[in-house]
Amino acid sequence: MKVVTFGEIMLRLKTPEHLRILQTRDFEASYGGAEANVAVSLAMLEDPVSFVTKVPDNPIGRAAVNEVRHYGVDTSYILKGGSRLGIYYFEKGSNIRPTNVVYDREYSALSLAEASEFHWEEILEEGDIFYFSGVTPAISAHMKTAVLKALQYSRNHGVFVVCDLNYRAKMWSSRQAQTVMKECMQYVDLCIANDEDFEATLGIPAFDGNMRTGIQQMDTYKKGMEEILKQYPGCKSVASVLRNMYTVEDGDWMGIYLKDGKFYESPIHTVHSLEAVGAGDAFAGGLLHGILRNFEPQKTIDFAITASVMKLMIQYDFNIVTEEDILRIMKSSNTNLQR
Amino acid sequence: MKVVTFGEIMLRLKTPEHLRILQTRDFEASYGGAEANVAVSLAMLEDPVSFVTKVPDNPIGRAAVNEVRHYGVDTSYILKGGSRLGIYYFEKGSNIRPTNVVYDREYSALSLAEASEFHWEEILEEGDIFYFSGVTPAISAHMKTAVLKALQYSRNHGVFVVCDLNYRAKMWSSRQAQTVMKECMQYVDLCIANDEDFEATLGIPAFDGNMRTGIQQMDTYKKGMEEILKQYPGCKSVASVLRNMYTVEDGDWMGIYLKDGKFYESPIHTVHSLEAVGAGDAFAGGLLHGILRNFEPQKTIDFAITASVMKLMIQYDFNIVTEEDILRIMKSSNTNLQR
Amino acid sequence: MKVVTFGEIMLRLKTPEHLRILQTRDFEASYGGAEANVAVSLAMLEDPVSFVTKVPDNPIGRAAVNEVRHYGVDTSYILKGGSRLGIYYFEKGSNIRPTNVVYDREYSALSLAEASEFHWEEILEEGDIFYFSGVTPAISAHMKTAVLKALQYSRNHGVFVVCDLNYRAKMWSSRQAQTVMKECMQYVDLCIANDEDFEATLGIPAFDGNMRTGIQQMDTYKKGMEEILKQYPGCKSVASVLRNMYTVEDGDWMGIYLKDGKFYESPIHTVHSLEAVGAGDAFAGGLLHGILRNFEPQKTIDFAITASVMKLMIQYDFNIVTEEDILRIMKSSNTNLQR
Amino acid sequence: MKVVTFGEIMLRLKTPEHLRILQTRDFEASYGGAEANVAVSLAMLEDPVSFVTKVPDNPIGRAAVNEVRHYGVDTSYILKGGSRLGIYYFEKGSNIRPTNVVYDREYSALSLAEASEFHWEEILEEGDIFYFSGVTPAISAHMKTAVLKALQYSRNHGVFVVCDLNYRAKMWSSRQAQTVMKECMQYVDLCIANDEDFEATLGIPAFDGNMRTGIQQMDTYKKGMEEILKQYPGCKSVASVLRNMYTVEDGDWMGIYLKDGKFYESPIHTVHSLEAVGAGDAFAGGLLHGILRNFEPQKTIDFAITASVMKLMIQYDFNIVTEEDILRIMKSSNTNLQR
Amino acid sequence: MKVVTFGEIMLRLKTPEHLRILQTRDFEASYGGAEANVAVSLAMLEDPVSFVTKVPDNPIGRAAVNEVRHYGVDTSYILKGGSRLGIYYFEKGSNIRPTNVVYDREYSALSLAEASEFHWEEILEEGDIFYFSGVTPAISAHMKTAVLKALQYSRNHGVFVVCDLNYRAKMWSSRQAQTVMKECMQYVDLCIANDEDFEATLGIPAFDGNMRTGIQQMDTYKKGMEEILKQYPGCKSVASVLRNMYTVEDGDWMGIYLKDGKFYESPIHTVHSLEAVGAGDAFAGGLLHGILRNFEPQKTIDFAITASVMKLMIQYDFNIVTEEDILRIMKSSNTNLQR
Amino acid sequence: MKVVTFGEIMLRLKTPEHLRILQTRDFEASYGGAEANVAVSLAMLEDPVSFVTKVPDNPIGRAAVNEVRHYGVDTSYILKGGSRLGIYYFEKGSNIRPTNVVYDREYSALSLAEASEFHWEEILEEGDIFYFSGVTPAISAHMKTAVLKALQYSRNHGVFVVCDLNYRAKMWSSRQAQTVMKECMQYVDLCIANDEDFEATLGIPAFDGNMRTGIQQMDTYKKGMEEILKQYPGCKSVASVLRNMYTVEDGDWMGIYLKDGKFYESPIHTVHSLEAVGAGDAFAGGLLHGILRNFEPQKTIDFAITASVMKLMIQYDFNIVTEEDILRIMKSSNTNLQR
C-alpha cells in the first residue's frame, strides 16, 4: 500500500529559542509544509510514500528535496524548475505571547507551475492513497486544477482520497475556499476537518471560534461531521481534532473519528507543548497509518491523536517518531526517565 | 511629545540557557539598565525618546550606544569618556532555583562622572517628560546631584517628571535611599512604586515582603499609594505592580493606578515567564505611552501591565513589542498559533 | 573526613535542546556516572573526596578526568589504560515524551579492568567513607570482585560504607543483581534505596511500580526500609527518595531517612525540572555531606532532598550547587529574582 | 556635509563557516547592499549620511532598517510598504572553490515601488553628495526613473553626484546596462569603475577579463578612465580598483584616482582575505570620506584602498572600521599583536 | 550503469574549529567512511549508486543511513543489527600541528557481522561496478570473506571491480594486509594506489615516505603502477594521486592514470585546504564517474583530481560538489567572487 | 621538582571568529594570564606546578581557579577575596588587520591585594623553581613588594628564579619598569627577554622595533643577552624568541639560549598561526620543562621554541599540548593527516 501526497514545501526560517525576528542574527533552517509533513510521518512509520511538488533547481530547492528523502520519502516525482522556494519566517511564542509567522511564499516554483506539468497517470500508477490538504488548491488556479485532475484520476482508478480541509485565512477568503473545496469534496473518501475548517471551507457550522472550549463543543462538532457525510455521500468517514487551548503551550487534545455511522473518541491528552507546529499533519499521518495497517477504528483514532500530541514535543515541522514511540505513549499512564 | 530618560546602561553577560557561571564557556552579550530599557520600550511604541548616560569611548561603550540606537532611541546626548562600562553577570534560574546576578559595576564611566557634565538646559530643551529610576541617584553622589539638577530644571520648565522608586539593596541601604529619594520626590509628578520600594525608599509601609501574596495585600498597597500623594503633594498619581510569585517563572500580575483620587485596577494576568528581567521597566514604558497618547486611565493601566507581562516572554533586557502586539493581547482571551 | 567513591564515568553525548538523535548534527559532550556525580557534589560542598575509576589513556579518558578534577575532586587514584570510554547518548524528553538514553558502554576500560588493579589499602588509607552504587558491581565480574575487596578492606579498617542500590535493568537482571547486592549489603553501613531498588536488588517489596503515586506508598516504603535493617544488621540506616511523577518534568519529591529506629521525613517539594539526570546522585551527595558535617538527622534528610531537587534545575550530570545555595532554598518559602 | 545614498538592502543568509547550502541547517542573517554598505562606511567614519530605500512593513523590513541605524545612519527617509525584502543566499568559497551567491530578490518592495514615491526635493534638501551604484537602476524601470529624477534634482541644486558603475550580469545584460548608465553618466561628478564595468556599462574597453592580471593592465585601465572623462565632460574624476586575484582569498589590490588630469596611484596591498564581500563599497566609502574631509588626492586614494582591503578582513557586508583603524594600517608597514 | 560500494560507515565526532578534544564541550556529528564517501560522491554526480553495510538498529545507526540517503544513495541493502556504530574522534590540525584521529571503532556492527549476511547475488544483481577499499577486508576475517565473495560473484557475472588499496596502519600490519590484498587483487579491474599503499599492501616499492616530495617521485610511482598491472594481469588500469604536502593545509596535488599501456597526467593543483578528509575517496568517486560517463582517459584523470582537490574545500566527509562545479574549476584558471 | 608561578589571571572575553566587538552578541569566555599560562603548560607536560594569585570569592573567581585546576595545576595557594576579576576583551585580527585587546583590569582583586597576604615561606616551602613575569610587579606597588619578598625568600632558600621580562606598555612606562625590574633582576637565575623587553625594562639595546626583521637582528640580540649576564652576575642564562612577523599570522620564529657562555640556536619555524596569544608563555613553559627534565641546552631551546610555535595552533590562552606532541613536531619534517 503506497501513499502519494501533493503540496508545497517551504523553507522555514526560525529564530533561535523565542527571539523575535527583530532580535535575531541567526535563523534555523528547516523545510516543511502540510503534505511533506504527512509524507515524512508515514516514512517514519515505515509506510511507502511519495511526495509530489515542484521546487527550483537551485541549492535551496535541492536541500528541500534532500530533507524529505532523508527520512525515506520517495522524491522521484518532484519537479525541478521555477525561480524560488517559498519561505516562512517563524517566531515561536511563549505562554501569552502568540507564535508569529511571516509568509514570503508568493511567486514560488509551485505557485507558478502549470497543472499540466503533473502527470497523474504516472505518479499515481502505483498509489493506493492520495493525500492533499486545502493548502494546495489555495496556492493558485493551476494548483486547483492539478488537484482536481489528481482527484479525477483517483476516482477512476480506485485510489483512496484523503483530504485535510486545512483552511488558511492568509491564503484565501472563506468564499474562495468554499467554491473550490466543495468541488474537491466530491472525490474525497476520508475528510479531516478541524476548528474553523467546517465553516470556512464547507459552510457547515461546528465550532464557535473559542479555542479555550473546543472539547466542550463536541456535540456541534459531531453534527458537523455527520453533515459532511450527508452532503458528500462519496465521503465515508471524517476525523477531527478537538482542542482546548489555554496558552500557547498548554492545552487538552482529543480526536474523534466518524466511520460507518459510529463515533470513536480518543482519550483527552493534557499537554504542555514544545513546538506547536505540524500537529494537524501528524494527526493525518497517524490516521493514514492506522488505515494502511488496518487498525480498528478506535485504535486508529487513539494512534492518530497520540501521534499528534507527540509532535507537540518534537522540534521542526516533521514528526520524527516511530510506531514504537507512539504505542509506548498510548500504553503508559506514566512517563519516566530511562537510564 | 518627547521623553528623556537618564541612567546607567551596563553590559549584561548571560550564560546560555540556565547554565551556571561555573559551567559556561560562553556569554551572551546584551546591554540594559532601567532607564535604557524604558527608552527602548518607548521607541518600539514609536514615541520620540532620548536616552542620556555616559559610556567609555571604547568598543564596549560604543556597542552599548549602538544597541539603544538600533531600536530608534536618540543617543545624541550620550557622553563618551571614563574607563569602563559596568557589567552584570546573569544566571537565569528555573523553578525553585533563583536567578543569580553578579554585579561588576563599580568604577563605571557614569559612576565616576561629574554632575556638571550633563547640561540639562540643552538636553531637556525639547523634552516633555523626564524619566529616571531610583537606581540613578544610588550610583554616586555626583549622580544624585545630576538627577536633582534635572529635576529642578524640569520643575522650572514644565517638564513632567516620572520616577520609578526602584530600590536596589545591593547599591545602597534603605537609610541612604530615603535621604535621597525623599528629596527627589519633591519634584515628581508620577511615581511608580512596587513591592519593597514604599518602605525602603520612602518609609511608607505597603508590602509585607511575602512575594507569594502581593495581590492579597492590595489594601495596604492602596494605602501606601495614597500616603505618597499625601506626603508629596506635587505628585499627582502613583502606579504599582502587584505580584504573587510562586516560582521563578509562575506568577499572577496586576497593575493599580491611582489618579485624580481614583484607583484603576487592571485584570490579573497569570503567566509563566520566559525571562523575568525588565518587567518593571516595561511597565513604566507602557504607562508613559498611555500618558503620551492620552489613553484613559483604565486603558493606561491595562496597557502598562500587559506591556509588563509581555516582557516576561521576551529575551534580553529590552521589551521588543509593538503597540499592536500589546493591544492584541489585551483584546484576546485566547492565544493561538498563526500559520 | 575524606570520602572515596568508586565507579564508572562515561562520555555523555546529548543532543541540543530536545532534538532527537535522528535530527541532530551536534552533540553536547559532558561526563558523568553515579559515583563521579557524588564525588563532584561533595567537592562543590567543600568536602574532601577522591574518585576512583579506570579510563583509557587517550584524550577522551583524560578529558573525563579533567572534568572531575575541575570541581576539586582528587583524581590521583584514577587508573589509565584500556581502549575506550563508555558513552551514553541522551535525548531529553519533554512532557509526555520520555527521555531516551542509548547506551554504548560495552568494552569500556573499566569493564575490561581486573579487580587486582585497584589497591584498596593505598586508596582507602586516608578514607573515612567509601561510596559505591549498584552500577559498579553490575559492570563486570571483575568489578564485582573489586567492590567486594574494597568492602572487606573498609570493614577491617573502620571505613564507613555507603551504598546506593541503584538498580539498572539495562545492565543486569534482578536475579543477577540480587545475588551480588545481597552479598555486598553485608558490609554496608548506610543504604540508599529508591523505587524499584528494594525489590530488584534485595527482593524486598516496597514500591508497586506506579511512578504517579510513590509518595502515597510511604507506608510500604517504610516497611521496606525497616526490612533492610532487619535483614542486614550491619546496616544502621536507610534513606529513600519518594516521588510522584506526573510528566517528564512535573513531580513531587520527598526524602525519608530511617536512623536509630526513627523515621525522619522531609517536606514535599513540588517541582518542574529542567534536566532530570543525577538527582539520585545529588541526594546521595547531600546525605553524605550531612553525615560528614554532623547535621541532625532531620536537617540531613532535608538537606539531601533539597540538594536532589536543586539538581533538577542544573544542566549536565554534576550538581553544581554550594552549601549556601541549598541552605537558601531550604529556608525560603519564596523564590524571587535578585538583581 | 551630508551624503545621501539610494539603493536596495537585502537580507543575506550565509551558511556558517564554508558550508554549502546543501549541508547547512543554519543561516547567519545580516543585511546589505551596495548603497547601504557605503552609508554604514560613512557613519563609521563619523560622516553624516542618510540611506534611502523601501522595505516591507514587516519584521524583516524593520530589522533591515534597524541594522543600518545601529551604526548611526539616518533612516528617516526609508519608505515602508510592499510585500518582501530581497534575499541573497551566500556560500563562502575557499581557495579554488568559488564563493556562490543565490539571488532571491525578485518582487522585492523596492523593485515594485514607483518612482514617484521618492520625494527628492525633500530627501536631498540637506544633501551635499548623492551616491548610487549601477545596481539601483538595474532593479526596475521605476528605479531607473527614480535615479534619474534624483540626478536631475542634484544637477539643479548643486548636489555632487557619485556613481559606482557596479555591473551585475545576473541583473541585466550589457546592452540594457549601457542604455541606462550612459544616460545616468550625464549627471555624474565622480565615477567609480572597476574590472568589467568599463566595457559592460559604458562600452569602453579597459580590462581583458583575466582576474589574475588586473594590475598589469594598468595602462588600459588608465586609458579607460581618461575615456570616461572625455565622453562625459560633466564628470571630473574617476577612481578604480585594480586587482590580481590568485585564489578566492589571495590577491594584490591597488587604487587609481584620476583627478584634474592627474593620476594618483596607491601602494599595492598583498592580502589574504577573510570575507571578500563589499570591498568595492568600502572603497567608495573611503573615497567619499576623503572628499568630505578634503584629503589630498593621493591621501584620498590611499585611504580608499586601505578601507577596501580592511573590509576583506571584516565579516558581513558592512565595513566596521574607524578612521583611526584605517590610518594606523596606512602608517604601519608591520602588523603585530597588542596585548 | 549502477555502482555498489561496500564498507563501514562511522560516526565522526569533530571538535569545533581546531579545538583539542581536551578543550571541547561540543562535538559536530557527521558520518563517513571510504565506501560511503564514494557512494555520496557518485550520487552528487547523479550516478545511480547503492551503499552496502551493517549498522545497529538504534538511532545512531538509523541516522547514519539517513545521512547517506539524504544525498540520493540507495540504502535498501543496508543491514540492521549488532550493538554499536564505530566512532572516530577528529581534531583538525593547523599548519604544523597535525590532525589527530582517535578511533573507537572496535566491536562495531559491521566488524561483528558474518560474511553470510550479505547476499551478493541479490545486492549485485543490477550492479555494473563494485567498489571497495582496503579498509573493508581489514575490519575482520568475516569482512575479508564477504569481500572475496563479492569479488567472486563480480568476476562470474561481469561486474567491473574497483579497489582503492587504502592502507590503514592503525587497522592491520603490512604483512596482514599483503596476505589479504594480494588475494583480492586477483579480481580487481581498476586499482587505485596512493603513497604507501604500493609497498604496504602489495609489497611493490613506489614511494619513499617523504610527503614533501611525492610529485618528484613520479618515476618510481609509474614503475609501481606498471608493476601492479604486471603482477595482476586481470587488472587493466591503475590510478594514483601524487602529493607534495608542505603543511597540514598546503600542498601540490596531481593524478596519474595508467590505462591501455599509456600514462595520463593531470595538471598540478596547488591548494590550501579547508579540511583534508576524504580527498582520496573523492578521487575515486571522480574516477568512477569518468568511467561511467565514458570520459576520455585524460578527461577522466583531470576530473578525478579536480574532484579530489575540491573535496579539500568541503567540510565533513562527503564531497558535496556537482559535475558542473567540477567542470567549472577544470575550465577556469581563475577563481573569482560572484555576486 | 616543583614549580611555583605567581601572577594575575583574567577573564578573557573573545568575540567569535574575527568579529569586532561592535558586531558581536556573544563572547567566548576563557581565563588566562602569563603566569597561569606557564603553570598550565607545565601541568600538561606532567610537571608538578602550583599557581599563586588572588581572585574574588564569587563565581567568576571560582571559575578561573577551576579552569587552571582542570589541567592539573595545584591551586591550593590561591587567595579568595576582593571585588572583581580583571577582564580583557579580545578581537582576533586577520592578515593586515591587527588583533585588538581592550583591557578592563583595573581594581582587580590582585591589584588591590596587600603584599602581606602572600606567605612565601609556606607557598615556596616545597618549591624548586619560582616563575614570574614583568606583568606581576607592574600591577601595583603591593604586587611589586610581593614579588620582591618571594625573590628574597627564593635566594635565601635555594629556589631557582625564572623571570620573563614581558614588558607591557599599557601597564607602565619604560621608566617605571626599569626601576622595578632592575631590582628584581638581582635575584633572577634565568631571564627570558624578547623584542622590546631588553630596552624597555633593562635599558639594554637589542631590537630596533621592526617586527619584520627580528631574526636578522640576531647579533644585537646576542649582545643584549650577554649584556644581561654581565650586568646581573647572579643571572646565569638568558633565552629569547626572535621573530620576523609578516602579517598577523605569518612569521618566522626561532629561539636562542645563552648558557654557560655558549649560544644555542633553534631551527627557524615558518608558520601561519591560528591564534597568536600566549606563545611567549608557552616558550617559558617549554624552557622550564627542559630544565626540570635536564634536557641538553640544545634540546631545551629546540623544545621551547617548538612548544611556542605549537601554541600558535592552539586556541585560547593555554598551551594544550603534551610532551609527545612537541617531540613529534621536533622530529618530523613533514606533517600529514592521520586517519
**Structural class, from secondary structure content of chain A?**
alpha/beta
Number of helices of chain A: 11
Largest Cβ-defined interface: A-D, 27 and 27 residues
The CATH architecture of chain A: 3-Layer(aba) Sandwich
Average pLDDT rating of chain A: 96
Q: N-to-C terminal Cα separation of chain A, in Å?
A: 38 Å
- Taken in chain order, the helices and strands of chain A follow as EEEHEEHEEEHEHHEHEHHEEEEHHH
Q: Would you state the CATH class of chain A?
A: Alpha Beta
Written overview of the protein:
The structure is a homohexamer of 339-residue chains. With 339 residues, chain A is of the alpha/beta class. Chain A has one domain (3-330): UDP-N-acetylmuramoyl-L-alanine:D-glutamate ligase. Chain A has 11 helices and 15 strands. Chain A has helices spanning 34-44, 59-70, 120-123, 135-139, 141-157, 174-184, 197-202, 218-231, 279-292, 297-311, 323-331; strands at 3-6, 10-14, 26-32, 49-52, 54-55, 79-80, 87-91, 100-104, 129-133, 160-164, 190-192, 237-245, 250-259, 262-265, 269-272. In chain A, the strands form 3 sheets. In chain A, strands 1, 4, 9, 10, 11, 12, 13, 14 and 15 form a 9-stranded mixed β-sheet that branches. Strand 3 (26-32) of chain C pairs antiparallel with strand 3 (26-32) of chain E, so a sheet runs across the interface. Chains A, B, C, D, E, F: Belongs to the carbohydrate kinase PfkB family.
